[in-house]
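[Meeting: bench + compute handoff]

Bench side (C.D.) handed over the final construct sequence. Compute side (W.E.) agreed to return the predicted structure before the next meeting so the bench team could plan truncations. Sequence as handed over:
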Amino acid sequence: MAGSWSYLAPDSSSQSEVKEQGSRFIAHMAPAASPGEAMAFIESLRKRYHDATHHCWAYRIGWGEELEFRFSDDGEPSHTAGEPIYRSLEERGVSDACLVVVRYFGGVKLGTGGLARAYRGAARQALDDALLATRVLTEAWDISLPYGAQGSLRHAAAGLGVNLGEQTFGEEVTIVARVPREVSEAFGRRLARLREEWKGAVTWKSK
């Protein structure tokens, strides 16, 4: 579930389709780690569905202050396509994703309200069908400490869900930690106590 410290992201691509008074709305969602990846995905669908009436889309990348997003109506009336797609992602707390809804016009005009409902419905169906995974927001910390302090560090890290990764060995050990932002203050307090125990020999900084 999405929250202040985590969000949902697609694990793989998904596809769904809804029909409204003869028009087909084909939704595709894919992971996107950057705006460039999102735009490449959109372009691939433009080529695949080259005969479609519209290719409307939205993407969300990152979270919080680092969030990047865009959406497009691709010729549909303003606010009837791209924004409903985007709001569907936002409502579910989904990011690192690009969602495209391809429309084949069926001969019946739906009106602005009908269009917005159709695009929103197609987007929500794609989200319902997708495999979504939780992404936990983390920070990278470099921790330097004496060899003898490693056990205490690992115990503190395990208790807070901190991942200890790459290690460099010299006069002391330097470890790269991935610290969930939700526990960064608590982990900092654990490190401060460890530094006191080792008379200042434990140091850390975020990258």
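W.E. noted at the follow-up: The chain has a mean pLDDT of 94. C.D. will use this when planning the next construct.
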